[in-house]
Every structure is written in structure tokens, then in C-alpha cells.
Amino acid sequence: MRIEILCTGDEILSGKTVNTNHSHMARRLGEVGLTVCWGTSVGDDRESLREAFRRAAARADAVIVNGGLGPTVDDLSQEMAAEAAGVELVLHADWLARMEAFYERRGRVMPPNNRKQALLPSTAEFIDNPIGTACGFALEIDGTPFIFTPGVPREMRRMMEEQVIPRLLSRSGHRVATRMKRFHSFGIGESRADHMLGGVESLAPAGTVKLGFQAHYPQLETKLSVRADSEAELERLLAPVEAEVRSRLGTHVVAEDDDTLEGVVSALLARDGCTLATAEMLTSGAIAARFLPGKDAVDPHRAGVVSRDLGQLAAAAGLAAVPGSPDSSAASAIACALRRQVGTTHALATLVAVDEGEDRIELGGTVVIGISDAGGTVTREARLLGGREWVRLGAVELAIDCLRRRLAGLPVDERIDFEKR
Amino acid sequence: MRIEILCTGDEILSGKTVNTNHSHMARRLGEVGLTVCWGTSVGDDRESLREAFRRAAARADAVIVNGGLGPTVDDLSQEMAAEAAGVELVLHADWLARMEAFYERRGRVMPPNNRKQALLPSTAEFIDNPIGTACGFALEIDGTPFIFTPGVPREMRRMMEEQVIPRLLSRSGHRVATRMKRFHSFGIGESRADHMLGGVESLAPAGTVKLGFQAHYPQLETKLSVRADSEAELERLLAPVEAEVRSRLGTHVVAEDDDTLEGVVSALLARDGCTLATAEMLTSGAIAARFLPGKDAVDPHRAGVVSRDLGQLAAAAGLAAVPGSPDSSAASAIACALRRQVGTTHALATLVAVDEGEDRIELGGTVVIGISDAGGTVTREARLLGGREWVRLGAVELAIDCLRRRLAGLPVDERIDFEKR
After folding, report:
1. Using CA atoms, how far apart are residues B74 and A27, in angstroms rounded to an integer?
2. Which of A96, B176, B231, B356 is a Cys-bridge partner for A118, taking CB atoms 3.0 to 4.6 Å apart?
3. Secondary structure letter of residue A323 according to DSSP
4. Confidence of residue B421 (pLDDT cuts 50, 70, 90)
5. Are B139 and B157 in contact (CB under 8 A)?
6. Cβ separation A23–B26 shorter than 8 A
7. What is the CATH number of domain B177-256?
8. Four-way CATH pick for A2-172: 3.40.980.10, 3.40.50.12160, 3.50.80.10, 3.20.20.70
9. Could you give the ipTM of this predicted complex?
10. Residue B39 and residue A42: Cβ atoms within 8 Å?
11. Pick from B315, B313, B338: which is nearest to B326 by CA?
12. Is residue B106 within 8 angstroms of chain A, CB to CB?
């Protein structure tokens, strides 16, 4: 099934807005086993839309149109869809009533412009938008199914999951229950992970579970896309593959699905009533910033000190003697002093010394981490390469991961792929 | 002149990579007065490229193709360009020699695959890539000029500025010297800035200077695009408009061109041999992280303390008495204590209290800033709305901007548009 994604709007075409809608839609379609064969972006003008609809209808087996469903005069999707299908626009009374109620709940009167959003081509099938005023719709143009979706990313994303993907899967003859299981790991590169996980897909019947990777340095995301006839079958297919991936990636898995490394660390600390203080040299607060509290999130981070000067950092951590160099004994002493000064159960000190010279891909840095807790002190030292920012990002992740390992009772000194010895 | 941007590559089409190349190219073309009329993305397959080249040639007056110039078998741009133009591929000996020298300088032997990158359609005009192995080229397909550019963003960006834009401007009959003057401001929204700057373009002859905005909350970027026959004329046209924009935006301008707010603050501090310490509540190191040192950058930031607990923060700043609430007197006392403790000339304390309740667009927060220096203490209080993250981002910017104002001798309490009173 050849799918085309057609994004409309001057903001996208002119580059004022980066087209993350295309990438989200294409990625999600790929994850459920559907293939995007063509991408088009055109502005808000009738001639371009006419031509784009005609070409897409001729080329693709299904077309997803994004944008142009708003209330203003430059939103032309309904009008041009009706023209292309050779039908009239008719008022969708239910949607008009829903929009009016939507405004009423917010104590406002619906502006007259919005009425336009309830005008749909007469042959269109209505598609619900539970979180906005731009409903979607589906209709055939020159015999090809078109699905129209709103340009607001969160509305588009929800409609993709609930309406677009199930429709396309059912039309394509694919199975209809889908899931994406995700593992977030730190310390292994994509090629090694690929090697480590060779053959895991074969633990499920061919074509039901698909393995994929997405590298977001310093983390790697490993994904299992599963398709089945039902949720129950899906669980059954996924279980052995999921367990095998978890076991092979082992201690490198820092979180799963919507969890994050820092979330896992916070939860481990909170479980035992523990609290955290951080000291950072060169990462300048980037470690502390990872522990920003969410709405209901646990919040064990009590205080942090940051300085790019080792002496200043040591002083801020309450250490009387100034260390000579940013080595393991300095990291250990700073963590101990900070833990005592702030009165937390745990303290994490991260010292980074980047090599001298111009920033370049070969530039390296030495990262030294010290963790102090009731059980004593552990340290970890690593040499990272890849330029200033790369070293800094790696140091942040390595530090938080060391703390995760310490809290989980895992070795803190397992070698990582980004490390040069 | 109707320009089409044609991005090639499975990574872009499948959504694995977000297509920032399209947005960059389109934005830059718009800024010099050229218009992008169509955007296409296709994967690395011959049939799609063939069809995309044919359609673009029929539709556009000029086509920029991006990607597919690499050394691997899925890089098809040269091959398909030659096929579409009905010519052979020939070896560009100069480029081959340049590539070999490029590898040699790095102490490596060029892999044989890379030879492919020196094969160009026989009618193509070579376009230099001074920073990579994928050279560009230009040729006509069905009478329409096509320019092929590398997919690596930094190589594409440089080629756009140095080669693509001048060629397109000259072909379009536009004037050829162009410049983009940029002002970064904090505290004014796009619509107010638009209003404040009404008519400035008319200080230059019609069509030579174009005003535009790009909002990156909390900052706003105001851009003046200038086109002229020569650099000298360009200076002459720009000068009065630039001066007028600077004057009307006034104290809200935090930096110009490639400068940043934090860079300006660091330079102001360094000018007078001053140093800085920061205390942050809720922004969790995000203020300190803005002062990350670059390669040759001045680095006046000495130390920072962060905590989400007011008592802990006060203690870390060396304040004996714990403040009762995060108000102006607390901010002032923390800044004074911190300055004394760390021994810097300046201290900046930023306290944020976000309202209780679920995170939502109406959620507000109170930001209190205290600055201590040899001249005494100043404070600033502001109420921001827009949800947790919005308040936090606004607080970071407001704090650094207050310090800029203090250092520059400007009032620190000028009302900003994001503020509700």
C-alpha cells in the first residue's frame, strides 16, 4: 500500500515551521508496518492544492492530508476536497453543536468564522477530533482514499492513533491491534545493540514483531513494533521477545516506554526515602536540571552546586581543602562533603576536564564521578571523545546512570561504547 | 520565479530524520525575497526520483535537490540527474584529487566508494563544497535549472549561502548582495513588535529592505533582509532602518546578530573584571547552564547553587536565617549572602513559585529576582502565566535580562508582555 503524506500551509512550505508533522506521521506508519512513498508540501493556495490532490490521487493508494482545516480564509482543505471530489460542502450539524458546546464550556461565544469548520464535502465520512475544533474527514478523490487531519500537532497525533492508523491498517489488510514497546539504554551504540539483539524477532511468528532503533545520543531507543489480531494475541506475541531484549541489553537498559533515566533514579531514591544533592563542574547545572519536578513527580533532589572552577566547587560543597586536580579522590571528597553539608542521603559529584585546544570532533575529555551514600563512596572515571558538547552530554548521562546503578545494586564501572581507553 | 525544494532520502521520507533542511532552505530563500512554491520528499529509489525530477521540471522555474550525493549505493542523485538530462556520468578529476587530499590530511586513505562522489553528469557545472566530500552541481533537466546540494546540514547551509542563493538571485534578476540583520529582544511579543516597527521599511527605497519576525519564546528575533547591487549600497540602505529598529525596540534588544543574551552579559561582566554567582529555585541550573563556556569565551560565572527548597537554597547560599517565603526580601538576602560566600562581584538569585494544581495553559507562577553587587541590591518581581514550562523558561530569561539591565545601567523593572498584573 503506497501512502502519500501531503502537508499544506504557508508556514510549512516557507520553512517558518519545521515539518515535524510529516516525520511523526511517517514514523508512526512505519512502526505499524505501513510505508510512506511520497511527501508533498504546498502552500495555502487553490491551484497548488488542486494539482497536489490530483497528483497524489494518481500516485498513491492512500493519501493523508495535514492542515488547512482551521477557521480562517486561508484554510482551504474542505473547499478543495469538495471541488476535487466533485461534490458540495454541507453543514455537519452535530459537529457545529459540539463546537458551540466546546466554546460554551469555556464561557465564550463561538466566533462566526468557526462555522466553516463544520462544512464538509457531502460524500465525506466525519472523523472525530476530541480535543479541538478541526474535525477530520475521509473521502475518495479519483478513486483514491484521502484522510484529512488537523495541523495542530497534538490533535493530529491523537487522530493518527485513534482513527487514521486503524483505518489504513484495516484497508491494507494488516492486523489491527498494534503496540510499540520501547527500551531506553545508555552505553551501547546502535550497531552493537543490533548485533546483541540478532534473531530476537524470530521468537515470534514471522512478520508480527519488528525490531528497530533510534539513536538520541547519549541514549539509544530500541523499539519492538507488534501487530496482531487482538490485544490478547499481541501480549502473547510480545512477551517472549520483550523478555529476551530486556535480558540481552541487561544492565544498560535505563528505562522503558515513557519512563526516563532521571525518573527511574528519582523513583529509586523515593522508594527508600532517600534524597540527593549534586555537584557539577563544567556540566553547569545540566544534571540538576534533569531532576526538574513534574506535576505529581517525586522530587528527591534537594540542592546542587555548580562551578567550572574546582576550588570554587569544592568550597561550595563545603570542602575545606581545595583538591589539586579533578580526579577520583576530588570527586569522592566533594561528594562526601556535599552530602554532609546539605544533609541528604546521597550526593553525586561530576567533574569534567575537557582537553585544551579548538573544539573539534577529536577533542576529548575526562569525566570523574563520585557518589557518596550511607554505604560509602564509589567513583567512576571515563575518557570520552567527540568534541566539547558531546563530552558534556555524555558526562551528564554517565553521572545519572552511575547513580542509577548504585541505587539498583549494579556495577558502576561497566565499560560503555562511547568510552576510549 | 517558482522554486521547488526536492529532498531525497529514506531517512527524511520515513520520518526518522526531521526535515530541517527544507525549512532552512525555504526560510533563507524567503529572506532574500525568493519564493518556494512546492516541496517534495522522496526515498532513495530510482522510480520515485525519476518521477520527482520530471514533475519538478514541469512545475518549477528552478529546483533545488537536497541529498543523495554520498558514497553509498543508495545515493542516487548523480546517476538519476544524468539519466534525466540524457547524458553520461564523467569523472571530475579535480574533485577526486581534492577528496584524496582531504583524506590524506587526516592521515587516511580514501575508501574506493568515495570515487563515486566525483562522477558528475557530463553537462553539469561543478559546485564547490569546501567542508565535505559531496560536491554540488547544477544542470538543466527538460529546460529547467536544477541545483544539487549535499544532505549534511552544515555543508548544505554553506553551499546555500555561497552558491545557491547568489545563482538563484542572479537568475531571477534580483539584486545580488544580500544581508540579514538580526535583533534579539526579550519582553515584547510579535504583534507588539510589529506595531512598534510600523513603517520602518519605508526608510529605504521600496523593495530593498524587508522586515520579518521569528518568535522563539521567550525571545523574539526581528530580521531585516536587505538586497542591493553592491555591499556598499547595502550598507547605505540598511543603516537608517537598522538605527530606527534599534531605537524603537530600545532597551528590549538583548543582543544582535550572532550574539546572545548570555554572551552580552558575560562580556559586560568581563569588561569590568566582574564575576558572577547564581542561586536558582525551580529553574534547577538552567540559568547557570546558559553560561557554559565556549572555546575562547569569557567565563565570569564562578559558582551556582540550585535547590527547589527555599530553606536548602538559602543555606547553600550561606544565609543563616531561613526566609519565610520566596519574596523580594528573600531574593535579596540570598543574593547578598551568596555574593559574600563565593566572593564574586555580582550575585543573581532567582526564586520561582509555580501555582498549585494540574499543569495547564492557565497555570501561573511568581518570579522573584534579586541582584547584589557593589552598588547595592535590586529586586524584580513578575507574575507569568502559561503553564509550568513556560513560566520556567520565562523566569530564566527574565533573570538574565535583569542582570543585563543592571550591568548596562538600564531600569530592571520595565514591564514585559508576558507579565500579568
Report:
1. 20
2. A96
3. P
4. low
5. no
6. no
7. 3.30.70.2860
8. 3.40.980.10
9. 0.71
10. yes
11. B313
12. no
Touching A: B residues 271-300, CB under 8 Å = 280, 282-289, 291-295, 299
Homologous superfamily (CATH) of A261-408 is CinA-like (3.90.950.20)
What is the distance between the alpha carbons of residues A9 and B226, in angstroms, rounded to a whole number?
26
Q: Which amino acid is at A201?
A: E
Quote the DSSP letter at residue B134.
-
pLDDT digits (tens, 9 = 90+) for B227-249: 888 889 999 999 999 999 999 99
Residue window 344-373, chain B: list those with CB within 8 Å of chain A.
358-359
Pair A137, A64: CB distance under 8 Å: no
pLDDT at A39: 98
Cα gap B25→B12, rounded to integer Å: 15
List of residues 6+ apart from A157 with CB closer than 8 A: A24
pLDDT digits (tens, 9 = 90+) for B342-401: 899 999 999 999 988 887 777 889 999 999 999 999 999 999 988 888 899 999 999 999
B20:A18 CB<8 A? yes
Minimal Cα–Cα distance from B300 to chain A, Å?
A: 10
**b/e burial code for range B179-197 (CB count within 10 A of at least 16 → b):** bebbbbbbbbbeeebeebb
* A16-19 long-range contacts, CB within 8 A, separation 24+: A16/B23, A16/B27, A16/B214, A17/B23, A18/B18, A18/B19, A18/B20, A18/B23, A19/B18, A19/B19, A19/B22, A19/B23
pLDDT under 70 in chain A at which residues?
175-176, 293-298, 421
* Residue among B305, B334, B354, B358 with most chain A CBs within 10 A, to mutate: B305
Torsion of CA A312, A314, A318, A319, to 10 degrees: -130
Reading the block at residue A58, the C-alpha cell is 494518481
Q: Check residue A196 and give its pLDDT.
A: 93
Within B135-185, where are the H helices? 153-159, 165-172
Nearest CA of chain B to the CA of A341: how many Å?
8
Residue B31 confidence (pLDDT) above 90:
no
Q: Where are the domains of chain A?
A: 2-172, 177-256, 261-408
**Confidence band (pLDDT; 50, 70, 90) for B49?**
very high
Report which secondary-structure segment, H or E, holds B225: strand B219-228
In tens, the pLDDT along B106-122 reads: 778 888 888 999 999 99
| Identity of the residue numbered A267 | A
Which pTM value belongs to this model? Answer: 0.75
From CA B373, how far away is CA B396, in angstroms rounded?
Answer: 19
Instruction: Tell me the sheet residues that pair with B263.
Output: none
Answer yes or no: do A295 and B18 touch at CB < 8 A: no
Three-class SS state of A321: coil
CB atoms inside a 10 Å sphere around CB A365: 21
CA closest to A212 among chain B residues: B16
Interface test with B, best of A23, A31, A299, A363 (most B CBs within 10 A): A23
Q: Establish how many alpha carbons lie within 13 A of residue B250's alpha carbon, considering only the half-sphere containing its beta carbon.
A: 10
All three cell numbers of B155, joined, read 555543508
* Gap between the Cα atoms of B188 and B417, Å rounded: 5
Q: Is 60 exceeded by the pLDDT of residue B296?
A: no
Consecutive H or E run containing A170: helix A165-172
Query: How many interface pairs between A and B have CB atoms less than 8 angstroms apart?
Result: 190
Task: Report the alpha-carbon angle A115-A119-A124, nearest 5.
Answer: 155
Candidates B16, B308, B342; nearest CB to A299: B308
Among A28, A292, A313, the residue with its CB nearest the CB of B303 is A313
Residue B298 — pLDDT band, cuts 50, 70, 90? low
Q: How far apart are CA A169 and CA A60, in angstroms?
A: 15
